[in-house]
Design goal:
single chain, alpha/beta, 13 helices, TIM Barrel
Amino acid sequence: MLDAAGCLALPGLVDAHVHLALDTGIYRTDDDFGIGTRSAACGGVTTIVDFATQLAGMRPIEAVAQRMAEADPLVHIDYALHCMITDFPVHAEPSLADLVRVGVPSVKVYTTYRPNYYADDAKLLRIMRAAAEADALVMVHAENDAIVSEATQALVAAGRTRLAYHAVARPAVAEVEAVHRCLFLAREVGASLFVVHCSTPGAVHLIHQARQAGQIAIAETCPQYLLFSDSVYEGQRPAWYIMQPPIRAEELRQELWQAVADGEVDSIGTDHCDYSLAQKRATGQFTTTPGGIPGLETLLPVLYTYGVQSGRISLERLVRLTSTNPARVYGLYPQKGSLEVGADGDVVVYDPQGRGVIAASEQHTIGGYTPYDGFAVEGRVKATVSRGRVIYQDGQFMGEPGWGRFVPGRPFDRGVVEQLYGR
């Protein structure tokens, strides 16, 4: 029996931005779907949405099949998938309709990372048009590649390649410009746009304004952009904070929190990517340090502490941002993101009593660190329930590989955007 007296019973978290067993062709994380979903369960996350990467010459649906074969034997919790589109020649439009038919209604594109992920404007427009016709959502990593490349090259030429220069190489204007351009392109072809990991309030404001004008545009941010400022790059552990986009200046962090409080942000995901400390410390150069941090296990306690308990957002808003809204956006609601009768029975029991400190040694990830090491938090995840089964309780993980299953998402529903707002 699970004793939840004095605790909060919330819908299991839905982290819709996760990179498990990531292989970029340059770097590869040491984790797998078993390690990653165990960490998720210990943090109250009951559903993740990961990525299937379509490589050159591969049909998107083949990428999905390969990723499912990799995940199915290992997952401890349920999962869904997005598809990263890297190869989209003319006349490839039907491939997106194939994705939607198998329950993958979202595709991701990049305006940077030349040459392996980068999509120029013509390709972006083709993908957006095809996605609109297929009822798919277009997710975008938005940074202006030319601005980032020039800034990086100038720093390299000046011999300024220490990790301290990481944020300088990827300035805020690169994100804001790319968001502006993607919103314009999406509007031209009627595509629905989801901008991931917004690190600047300027980007969020543009998305909000577009939505106010009738465009289907959705904004996501991540805890790291709310809880750290770029001073971390001058600290003792800069490698812990190398990610793309980078951590921003303190004034932008505060403005981003205000945008969350004002309801301009629709979803919070972690962008979890569990590189090891050895990988992060290997070169000491921002140009060759893999970008990404672990975050699945710390999502709920840091947002409860520094969002709800600090008075920035309500508990109801926290549930929307981390569970209900992502489930709605990706066609998983009310099966996920809900405690309604008939839902899947995914629950996180959070004990708000007491105080604790996040310790890297207590995390269930494989990387060996957490950027939140030493953070004081209020409360703890007492139990996680997946489809009615307790898989984590009082510090003990009780899940088993293969318990999780693929949950197909329904085609993107443009009408769902009106349901996302709420403080």
